[in-house]
From TrEMBL:
GO biological process, one term: metal ion transport
Organism expressing this protein natively: Halobaculum gomorrense
InterPro entries tied to this protein: Bact_metal-bind_prot9, TAT_signal, ZnuA-like
Molecular function terms from GO: metal ion binding
Keywords: Signal, Transport
Protein name, UniProt field: Zinc transport system substrate-binding protein
PROSITE patterns (UniProt xref): PROKAR_LIPOPROTEIN, TAT
Family: Belongs to the bacterial solute-binding protein 9 family.
SUPFAM superfamilies: Helical backbone' metal receptor
Gene3D superfamilies: Nitrogenase molybdenum iron protein domain (3.40.50.1980)
Native organism taxonomy: Archaea, Methanobacteriati, Methanobacteriota, Stenosarchaea group, Halobacteria
Pfam short name (any one): ZnuA
Amino acid sequence: MTDTRDPAGSPGTTRRRFLAGGVGLAAAGLAGCLGGAAGSGGDTGGTDGGGSDDGPVAVASFFSFYDFARKVAADTPITVRNLVPTGLHGHGWEPDASVTRDIVDADAFIHVGTDFQPWADRAIQTLKDDDVDTQLINVREGVDLIPLADSLDPDEEGVGEGRGRDPHFWLDPRRAKQSVDNITAGFVELAPDHEDTLRDNAETYGADVLDRIDADYEAVFEAAGRDVVQLAAHNAFQYIADRYGVQMRPLVVNLAASGDVKPSDIVEAKRVIDENDIRYIGAGVFETRRPAKQLIAETDVEAYYPVTPYAGVREDWVENEWGYEEIADNINMPTFEVVLGNTPPEEAGYDGWNQEWRNFE
């Protein structure tokens, strides 16, 4: 990562510089606790947001909040980096020990609150144990989480102090605005001389992007001829259901994308598909497509189309500089138009969307 030392050599940054070497040993000890590492940190998942070589660096544990942060940091010295490698789902990913060193080297760590990403919790504990002054920015602070209720697998307990609550709040653009506010407050502490720019960026992004996405989603669901959506995906879309008055039926009721599909899950999905005359379903971009293919083979479903909880990015999305906004517009929204029966697949999305995404691999 970029060296972020203050030219004046403040005590905090000098201490971080000293601890970076020591924490490398501590982090190496954590490697055994991390299990099978899917990859190391440090991949931006897109272009670094804002910043300069001698400005503050903020690292993010999750793509959505990396994207929000880089939009807030535009035209300031703050550099924002995504720790989750391209092509991986941010919920369930377990990095190797280098991610802890990246966090130690950074001036701020943007995270999703406790008990959502175990590796992030361990990294935060390391920071506290070693008295590292990396600023912690919790994007979930002050967000109203909805109850998991019947959508929760009986074997799961929820999220930390919000046990029994659904952590995927950023799917609701209105709640996402609170996380933008949290990031902005943290960045104002990080770069107080740029407060006006940071707050202006956040206000513009909230109004021009999140409010617009909210209105577009509302129009899609209000125009729908049905109110049931079957997803061959994990349980990440209940905030869409709550916000827009639709039934989102996940195939996997676990919260993590790595949840196994049980025979009873397939049986229940078949029932929903049959009772609601469903012809198109959504499938998770970063999840296995085997269950979606099984439903096509064993029901009247004709095709599956992509959905994603904005938890990661594909290489082509990075090349096209897609963020939360572009993924909403080009992936989730056209799929919801199709599965709700609003729009024929061949008329959905951008030119060529149906050919690219129908039963995608």
